[in-house]
Design goal:
Blueprint lengths: L1 H36 L5 E4 L5 H12 L3 E6 L3 H12 L5 E5 L5 H15 L4 E4 L14 H29 L2 E6 L3 H4 L5 H21 L4 E8 L5 H4 L3 H9 L9 H12 L10 E4 L6
Bound molecules: NADP nicotinamide-adenine-dinucleotide phosphate.
The site of NADP nicotinamide-adenine-dinucleotide phosphate (NAP) has 31 residues, from helix 2, strand 2, helix 5 and helix 8.
């Protein structure tokens, strides 16, 4: 009897809880459906996606429903395994061995993607390398390798990708630069020059292609935990982290979240910008 009275008097509380839980579930389901379908039907090319930031970007875009074409330099086995991983998100995925530093290969790559996927809506120029050394010791080869892989690749692929994007009267191009392209860095004259060049390139492309509804933006990551930064000594890493207001390195997913925003409809009035994803390291 007491229990019945207790349950009756507590009914409004249970009712409130019931509706609260139901509301939360509904909210989470809606959010999941929106993020799974945000880019559905689109095709994205992510260069250099067998590891690190490129891999994180490809996964994020696939989770949002985009078909994924990705390129790599030499990691054939990793690329085949990654195709399977991406396909598990229910999208079409294919890796292409294509040297980003080779101008002629850009056209071939885009042609193959158009044959395989029928469209190209999003281009993420991510492939990049470092050949760090002080200017006094830097060889012409170290300079050329970095400039060709990081900067000339963006020129070649943007030039190739803009044709189908112009036909479609839509497109989003996202260039992965670096905070070092803004601040400069001792021992990275080649790398900093390539990344600063990308920022100027991004603004010029935004101005040239804006009237065609093709947007071009850059993302400048700070210290992101990947194989590229694994090569640094613990002392150098600690020094970097000291200068970051959020007191930690970023993850590929942190960069990928920004790519997702710039690739999708949430950013249709944003072009020619460089967004720093760096825990506040550069302001
Ligand atoms: N990590 C950071 O802290 C950081 C900070 C700022 C900016 N970034 C920029 O973010 C981008 C990705 O960096 P990450 O740290 O993820 O690098 P990463 O771990 O070294 O991965 C580089 C990726 O690029 C590919 N690649 C290298 N050279 C290539 C070429 N010539 N043609 C095609 N693909 C090529 C590699 O393919 P293979 O596996 O076949 O070699 C790999 O998939 C780079 O542009 C980098 O400059 C990184």
């Amino acid at each position: 009897m007491h229990l019945v009275l207790l349950l009756i008097s507590a009914k409004p509380v249970f009712n409130k809880m019931y509706w609260f839980i139901l509301n939360r579930i509904n909210h989470i389901c809606q959010k999941t459906i929106i993020s799974m379908t945000q880019l559905s039907g689109k095709t994205a090319l992510v260069t250099g996606a067998t590891r690190g930031i490129g891999k994180g970007i490809a996964i994020k875009l696939a989770q949002a429903g985009s078909n994924i074409a990705f390129s790599f330099a030499s990691s054939v086995e990793k690329a085949r395994a990654f195709e399977q991983e991406l396909a598990a998100f229910g999208v079409k995925a294919k890796g292409y061995q294509s040297n980003a530093a080779d101008f002629a290969q850009a056209d071939i790559l885009v042609d193959e993607i158009l044959k395989d996927f029928g469209a190209l809506d999003i281009l993420v120029n991510n492939a990049g390398i470092t050949r760090d050394t002080l200017l006094m010791r830097m060889s012409e080869q170290q300079w050329d390798e970095v400039l060709d892989t990081n900067l000339k690749s963006a020129f070649a692929l943007t030039k190739a990708a803009m044709k189908p994007m112009m036909k479609a009267k839509a497109g989003s191009i996202i260039n992965i630069t670096s905070v070092v392209g803004i601040t400069g860095n001792a021992g990275q004259a080649n790398y900093a020059a390539s990344k600063a060049g990308m920022i100027g390139f991004t603004k010029s492309v935004a101005k040239e292609l804006g009237s065609r509804n093709i947007r071009c933006n850059a993302i400048a990551p700070g210290f992101i935990e990947t194989e590229m930064t694994e090569a640094l000594t613990p002392e150098v890493r600690a020094e970097w982290v000291k200068g970051i207001p959020l007191k930690k390195g970023g993850s590929p997913e942190d960069v990928a979240n920004c790519v997702l925003f710039l690739a999708g409809d949430g950013s249709t009035y944003i072009t020619g910008q460089t967004i720093n994803v760096c825990g506040g390291m550069v302001m």
